[in-house]
Amino acid sequence: MAGLYIGSTTGYSGKNMIVMGMGLRLQKDGFTVGYMKPVGAMPMEIDGKLGDEDAAFVQDVLGLNEDPAMVTPVVVTQDFKVKAFTGKMDGLLDSIVEGYEAVSKDKDVTLVAGSGSMYSGKYCDTDAISVVRRLGIKTVIIDRFQKELKYDYLMAMKETLGDLMAGVILNDVPPNFMDEISQLLGPALEAKGVRVLGVIPRDPLMGAIKVGDLADRLGGKIISAHNKSERVVESFLIGTMQVENFMTHFRKKKNSAIIVGGDRSDVQLVALEGDCPCLILTGNLYPNDIILTRSEVLETPIIMVREDTFTVAKKMDDILSRHKLRDAIKIKQGAELVSNNIDFEFLKKELGLK
Question: Which pTM does this prediction carry?
Answer without folding.
Answer: 0.82
